[in-house]
Amino acid sequence: MKKSDKIDLLRNSIGTYNLCRCFFDYNPDYWYYYVLDVSDKLFLGIEEDDFLLDGFEIRKISNLKKVEIKDDICVKINDENKILANVDAPKIDISSWKAVFECLKALDIIIIVENEITDRGEDFFLIGRILDVKASHVAFSSFDADGIWDNDIQIPYSKITSVTFNSRYTKNWQEYFSKH
Question: pLDDT per residue over 51-96, tens digit each?
Fold first, then answer.
């Protein structure tokens, strides 16, 4: 599938109940997204899984192997139930990773930054807060499952495959840290 065809399909899905089945070159599985925005490099979607929406994700177009429109009864149920009616997506500039992180830093929320490419041993899963946004990388403060923070991790934009925010997982951590 040509890059331009993928981008066109994603763009034509914005503002619709077209559920996009997205396949990435680093994983044999696929994800379902309602697409909210598309640039030439990145796309922003809200992940759908079994009639539930779980957070926003930004992913690289260059990792997108194939995209299809899912057309089945599940999509009709989502439409009838107006699953997207209460979605309040923050405005994120997705023109580059730098722009993404500048917008997310202003929101001051806990996010997940990942590299899902496991065959090169470069994979990581980091959850935490943005400390600073630089030209080629983001300075990040991450915590482990025990809530112990590791400050000033440098994440090169070239190593990032996805960024997740406002998911159940990140919201629960956000709430925990705001109380403690």
Answer: 999 999 999 999 999 999 998 999 999 999 999 998 988 899 999 9
Rg of the Cα trace of the chain?
A: 16
57 touches 47 (CB < 8 A): yes
* DSSP reduced 3-state for 94: coil
Contact criterion met (CB below 8 Å) for 57 and 100: no
Main-chain dihedrals φ then ψ at residue 170, nearest 5 degrees: -70, -35
Alpha-carbon dihedral 19, 23, 29, 31, rounded to 10 degrees:
-30
Residue given tokens 């599940």 in the structure block:
74
Question: Contact, 141 vs 151, CB < 8 A?
Answer: yes
